Fold this protein.
Amino acid sequence: MRRRVQKAAPISQGGFSSTLCPPVQGASKTIPRGPESATMAPVTWLGVEKRGRAATLAFASLVFVAALGTTGPAAQAQGARYYDMQLFLPPAAGGSTFTIARPSVPRHLNAVFGIAGNYALDPFVRSETVSGGAVLFPAAPVIRHYAQLEAMAALGLFEFLELGVVVPVTIVDGAIDPLEATYRYTTQAGMGDIRLSAKIPILRGDFSLAARFVAQLPSGDWNNYSGNEYWIATPSAVVAWDPGPLTISGEVGYRLRQRRAMPGFEQDDEIHVAAGVGVPVIEELEIIAESQLRIGVGGRELRSNEVPWEVDAGVRIWPIRGLSIELGAGTGLLAGYGAPPLRVFAALRFATEQGDSCDAGPEDFDGF
């Protein structure tokens, strides 16, 4: 539910043209509904706001930490634990739903910082049968518990680009050897695969569209179900439609990854599809529901545990200006990898933007 605000005439600052929204009556009591629904005063090349410099520095610091993490863990013996088991991947700047990125981007040199966490019960259960239906290996959880904590940051540039970084840490209770007849479990903590993202708006307004690219770097402990030995690239398109009292969103992407296989399970390229809806109750509260599905397309055969389908629901709250809190839970509709019988999650984000913005950004879209 976006505010409909009439554009004002361009205002010249420092030789650059900028369009500002006219002030909204009672704006001092209005709490923005998301990081993209706020803006600072325009900035110029010669006089960048201190908040813009601080946000850029903080974002660069997190990127530097992420770069250090890309060296990955020390070389280890070849094992069968290097699989991508995380289906729940929140975007750095927040989304139309919990995992579907919004098509809009933050204003120029405005940033969004956040932390997020989720816990999944039995996110990977493996079984194996032979032709005729005889059970060769009964269903058993390879991973019993999977918790992930993430530090997130995103930066808007020139109203045309959003750059994001997510640095995860995982705690995994998984089988020491997933090929054993009887599993023995161990609990370990380590770094997950860092995600770098870029997003470019294509259409703005009530129906908005953006192109998005996410690179998942092999920085995690790939010998503990926390990462991969090789990168994963996901180009996608995200869309949002605001017909009135609700917002409908979706994402379609293709995950390119290196093939991994064990008896009864295989990972390769996938099509990623997600859809969701957000319904505002009051200005400070929104109810959100989403569903996401991955379909393996690059493997030698497609098993039921290679088509994870999950549905999640929860709320997003704006307790104070610029701050958002997400709380929710979900379950797997198809018990593929990463789609657990139970998932709980939470996220907290703060946007440096502190005022109301125009519905479609500045008239000249140059960020100034």
Q: What stands out?
A: The helical segments are 50-69.
